[in-house]
Amino acid sequence: MMDETTHIELHGKRFTYEQYRGNPPSFALLFAAAYTRKSRATCLCNGNHAQLYLTYRSGIYFLARMPETGHQHADHCPFYESPTQQSGRSAYTEKAIVEKDGFYQINLGVPLTIKRELELQERTTANPDSSTSNASIKLLGVLHLLWQVSSNNRWFPILYGKPVTKRHWRNVAYFLTEAVSRIQSRNDELSELLYIIPAFDKERYAEQHAHFLNFMHDVLASGTEQAVKLKTPKQLKLVLGEIKSIEFATFNYEVRFKEFGTKFYLNKEIYQRAADSYALGLSSVKANDARCIAVASVSSTKKGFFLIENLVLMPATQNYIPFDSSYEKRIADLLVEQSRKFEKPLRYDHQQLTLPDFELLDTHTRIPMEIYGMVSNVDYNERKRKKTAIYRDSGTPHWSWDLTHQVTPPSFPAPS
User: Fold this and answer.
1) Nearest 5°: CA angle at 102, between 100 and 106?
2) Which 3 state secondary structure label does DSSP give 271?
3) Which residues are registered as beta bridge partners of 51?
4) How far apart are CA 156 and CA 341, in angstroms?
5) Fewer CB atoms < 10 Å away: N or C end of the chain?
């Protein structure tokens, strides 16, 4: 098997990406010294020696690739970025997501301010994430962008040179925070608009809770009785985390995030909207072998309760790899079990886009993986027809599992 370890040189030191990702705090002193001297890092994933640079946001140092250099890295390198056409980003116009100087500028198509006279109307109208506009990015698109920029849609089976079979929220949240630090929405840092639920820390819980309340200060202030009387516009912010439970309680649904003690509330209409749009994500909340990741836009009531105004759900495996069907989950789990390196292409706001279900990254070239399970869905059958035609006409090597012919999945292509 080829050596897929990504080595990095920075400030006279050499280390692997796996070491950096597995224990980011241990690199704080090295990164601080290099940042002060404006030293550039070099990625040694292949012969291109693509440069990396350090950013410093919210008290944390991050390694990032130089703009427009994602394609210069090896396919297996974590700094590699798939061409735009290999994800849902291809369906947006240029105004929706712009990458420049290592940062992303997004046109957020999610209302974070609601005028009082329009409050009831906006809450009861159609799902704002159902808009067909390609000039802005909606909540699901934001979630997928963060998952891709943070490489959480990829699986790396080696850390510290040892096999890994489990991914934890602590690392997931850390690299989501890194991704958020590189994204702006118009004139705002996304980190000022979106709160990522941190990993639970018993000793720091009071500090974490105070930080959350401070983050939500404007939201709480706009929900007070005085703000309502003055018809001050209602302020919203975004919250991202793993759903622990959604239970009906008297009048509304009570939503709890894992790793977090604060309760959120969801009315029946918005719950039903989420149930209709994200049934697989909702069913993953109570599953023992799956997770449900959510992004919610949140406001505050007069009594200081947090109310979810809009909600998107993404089902994921125990290792936080997104999936779109139970068959995909089965394959993702099997790939992890076999210590394979792979990626889940994400559709963002464009769920009808034709993309492979997964891609193997540890083969000589990237190998698309297709799972054909549905037989009675017209749109699905049309995408299946397009996919098979593309592979047939291009001669592209690929792996497929057609459940209409095989009950068990065929063997995966051998790693190079």
Assistant:
1) 55
2) helix
3) 42
4) 5
5) N
- Tokens 């897929």 map to which residue? 4
Neighbours of 103 (CB within 10 A): 16
Is residue 90 within 8 Å of 99, Cβ to Cβ?
no
**Structure confidence by residue, pLDDT tens digits, 321-373:** 999 999 999 999 999 999 999 999 999 998 878 889 999 988 988 899 999 98
* Pair of tokens at residue 298: 């949140």
Query: Do residues 368 and 356 touch, judged by C-beta distance below 8 A?
Result: yes
pTM beyond 0.70: yes
SS3 42: strand
How far, in Å, CA of 402 to CA of 408, rounded?
A: 9
Chain length of the chain: 416
Contacting residues for 22 by C-beta, under 8 A, at least 6 apart: 159, 160, 171
Contact by Cβ (8 Å): 11, 30:
yes
Contact present, 327 and 314 (Cβ < 8 Å): no
CA–CA gap between residue 87 and residue 104 (Å, rounded): 16
Question: Token pair for residue 277?
Answer: 């749009």
* Token pair 């950096």: residue: 20
Integer Rg of the chain from CA: 22
